[in-house]
Amino acid sequence: MKIEHIAMYVNELEKARDFFTLYFGAKSNQGYHNKSTGFRSYFLSFDDGARLEIMNRPDMTDIEKLPGRTGYIHIAFSLGDRDKVDELTKRLKDDGFQVLSGPRTTGDGYYESCIVGIEGNLIEITQ
Question: What are the residue ranges of CATH 3.10.180.10 in the chain?
Answer without folding.
Answer: 6-56, 74-126
